[in-house]
Design a protein that fits this description.
This protein has a single domain, classed as 10k-s Protein, Hypothetical Protein A, Chain A (Orthogonal Bundle). Helices cover 66% and strands 0% of the residues. It has 97 residues and is an all-alpha fold.
């Protein structure tokens, strides 16, 4: 019984000491329209939400209107189909409002 408790304690210590997963970093300036078009819907939505924050910050606005996120993401996706080699940041700056 004591042996099982010791083994459980050692196993628990190893689980606690296991390294945590690293955060994922995305360098937005290096993403092309072709990359964006190839992402799954969840990743495109994530980038769409990032765009909303980026755009609102650039305009120094404090009110976020989420209805524009999907519209802007759709505009970016449409632009990216026409211009696959363009940097995503160019597409955002030319199309997001």
């Amino acid at each position: 019984m004591i042996r099982n408790l010791i083994l459980a304690g050692v196993a628990g210590a190893f689980m606690i000491a296991a390294p945590a997963s690293a955060q994922v970093s995305i360098e937005m300036s290096q993403i092309t329209c072709k990359d964006f078009s190839g992402y799954d819907a969840d990743t495109q939505n994530f980038i769409g939400n990032w765009m909303r924050g980026y755009w609102m910050s650039a305009k120094n606005l404090t009110v976020v209107e989420s209805r524009y996120v999907k519209r802007n993401t759709d505009k970016i996706a449409k632009y990216c189909k026409k211009m696959p080699k363009a940097p995503l940041m160019d597409a955002i700056q030319k199309n997001a409002r």
